[in-house]
Amino acid sequence: MEDQIKQQVDLFRNRLIEGLDESLNHSGVNSRRVAERLTALAEIGMTEEGGCRRISFSQEEKQAKNLVKQWMEEDGLNVHIDGSGNVFGRVEGEIDGPAVVSGSHLDSVMHGGHFDGPLGVLSALEVASAWKGAGVKPTVPYEVVVFTDEEGARFNGGLLGSQSVVGELDMEEEVKRVDFNGRPFTDVLADVGLTPDGFRKSKRDLNDVKAFIEVHIEQGKQLEKRNLPVGVVTGIAGPTWLSVTFSGVAGHAGNTPMNDRTDALVAASEFMLNVKDFPGQVSDSGVATVGKLSVDPNGVNVIPGEVTLSVDIRDIKLEWKEELSKRIKEYAQQVSDAHGTTVSIQESMNVAPVEVPADMQSQAGEAMREVLGEAPFYLPSGAGHDAMILGRYVPMGMLFTQSLDGVSHNPAEWSSLSDCVQTIHVLKRFVEKVMED
Q1: How far is 281 from 132, CA to CA, in rounded Å?
Q2: Given a cut of 90, is residue 2 above it in pLDDT?
Q3: Within this chain, do residues 227 and 339 fall inside the same structural domain, yes or no?
Q4: Which stretches make up the Peptidase M20 dimerisation domain (predicted)?
């Protein structure tokens, strides 16, 4: 097994270095350093299939954090680890005041890739490393952060580290959780030297934060289709989850005539077929997905009497998401009435989206234009990130790096080194612009 993992690490490094473009080594940014650091993190939790298993509150996540902490210290950052296990590395500025903060996470899903999270951490750190190499001191304080448990693979939750920083975490509820092995929350925390009380005490005075900026892989294909290394995020969509149940009458498939049926699955099927048409009626950024279906009694020779399905609705503006949800609910009732069934709709989740402030979008776009000579491309994020949590309280910006084939949360996840380094250059200029503002 060790030989297979070593082979996978070598394959990862070699593939990354194949994309090494020495012309991108300027302004203190070092593409080889980025490649070596990405590889070193990839080795921690590398699987035999070439993926990453570095779940939250594991020894692997802790090891990865300690390695980044070591790099921070080598680059002259003052390191602080809070009670949630969030790692902060700080560079003092020419003037004192609120800090610009940038970073992401190091935990992964169960069978993930090596860029989701680590790229954001290492991009933020490379900005500090570049300043040090060029003998530059930032205008105001700058902090690199590694947040704990963004993915939530351990307890089917997530974003615990960033929620603790802003004071949103309901620890009374969190301590009731058990992980996939049935182990209590407090026992799992103890494995890595953390406690619920530490999480409670991790709330930060957000007056000390000027802005938060996160780099993340796109997890989609828009940048790849446009052959762009980096894009500017306009907002982070918040999900609304609906559970829709169509109720008809179960009956014998052979003895019930076609004109005397109340088939719940037929009604549900018409609804599912047309849900896809509603987002475009409201905005260019909305999405709606039916991802789960339960049929009862689910027999080959039985007319379905009840069907329950899920609808995941997302958009980057609250009013757009609410309008989309309203139209889908109304349509469910129309379909049900047309087929003689009844329908019930329950909302199990409703997370408010977070828009990126216009001035942060503008500064990110200017940075992209200055660094790459490209007109900025703006796109929404359909997935949640730590930036979503921070963005409720402080100015927030986000950059996406091109993802190969749009693949994410999968061992095949990949972003070329060239695209990663170009994103870092844009991040560096973006951070400098925010500092100067």
Answers
A1: 50
A2: no
A3: no
A4: 237-335
